[in-house]
């Protein structure tokens, strides 16, 4: 099984939606741009948000088991995917890609 790199690429924050709909919470998202996690197949990397993992784990598992070209040509690198977490207030985009030297 291949190891998969998960890199935090971008985060958007919708302050208007947060103000109108969200109950105040501390540490809603602790992800930092450029932060990298390494996944060993189905095992969630330590420190990665549960919500983000639930959004990306099927893609991570597919790539870890040798799958590629998710969605038929969607990505320039066939052994990668760009996935966002399902937080409607502050979605985070993650680049997931196979670590070639770890295959």
Task: Classify the beta-strand content into a percent band.
Answer: 25-35%
Overall mean confidence score, pLDDT: 92
Structural class: alpha+beta
Quantity of strands, as a count: 4
Helix percentage range: 10-25%
Widest sheet: strand order?
Answer: 2-1-4-3
| Tally of contiguous helical segments | 2
What's a concise summary of this model?
The protein is α+β, with helices and mostly antiparallel strands and 103 residues long.
Chain-wise SSE layout:
Elements: E1 3-11, H1 15-21, E2 36-40, H2 50-64, E3 80-84, E4 92-98
Structure commentary:
The protein is an alpha+beta fold. It has one domain (3-102). Helices cover 21% and strands 25% of the residues. The chain has helices at residues 15-21, 50-64; strands at 3-11, 36-40, 80-84, 92-98. The protein has a 4-stranded antiparallel beta sheet, covered by helices on one side. A hairpin with a 7-residue loop joins strand 3 and strand 4. The longest helix has 15 residues, at 50-64. The mean pLDDT is 92.
Keywords:
alpha+beta, 4-stranded antiparallel sheet, 103 residues
